[in-house]
Amino acid sequence: MSRPPVRRIARGALNYAGIGATEHGPPPEGVDCLVTQAFVGEGAAAYRRTVDGLLTWQLQKRSGLRVRAESDVVVPGTRVVSGFGVGPLRINAPCEVVWVRRPVPGDGPQSAGFGYGTLPGHPVRGEEAFEISIDARGAVTIAITAFGEPSNWFYAAGGAVTSWARSRVTSRYIRSAQELAAGVN
For each of the chain's 185 residues, which pLDDT tens digit applies? Predict the structure, then answer.
């Protein structure tokens, strides 16, 4: 029995150079790249909770983004539209998942996460990735890697606002990962 075709929630194709570079690096030459890392919790249970939340869009939802995805679970090829702002000031950011790394059995050092790239209509052309890691001592961290450039002159002109928004969303991602690690509902 064949599966019904997925109804696409965003049109177009990935629109940037360096597809998959957040997993295998390096980012395209001449494009801004930002890597943010933070401690989120301790122990295997915290790691599993954080990864489970990450791979079911909870990190984005808890960060205050409005998330519409073609799948409840992050899988390669899934399209997602994150929205931020209010009413007519809402900006939609369509993306497609380009890679996923799932957790492996056991409690040893490992990492899991995913990266998604921009589609037409996103304010940036580039890629963003989220990786949750646990080290040999049980420390759980998040790494957020993003590279890109403004998608048009309008977003380029708002450089200071764009930087402020990126910083604010990143801090919300970190707080959300800490809540997931702690088991906060």
Answer: 666 556 778 889 999 999 999 999 899 998 989 999 999 999 999 999 999 999 999 999 999 888 999 999 999 999 999 887 666 667 788 999 999 999 999 888 999 999 999 999 888 889 999 999 999 999 999 999 999 886 664 555 555 556 666 777 889 999 999 999 999 88
Helical ranges in the chain per DSSP H? 21-24, 44-54, 58-62, 153-157, 159-182
Domain spanning 31-182 has what CATH number?
3.30.530.20
Which residues partner with 97 through β-bridges?
Answer: 116
**Residue ranges covered by each domain of the chain:** 31-182
The one-letter amino acid at 156: A
- The answer to whether 55 and 73 have CB atoms below 8 angstroms apart is yes
Secondary structure letter of residue 179 according to DSSP: H
Query: From the CA atom positions of the chain, what is the Rg in Å?
Result: 16
Here the tokens at position 185 are 């509902």
Supply the DSSP symbol for 158.
Answer: T
Strand partners, 41: 140
Global pTM reads 0.90
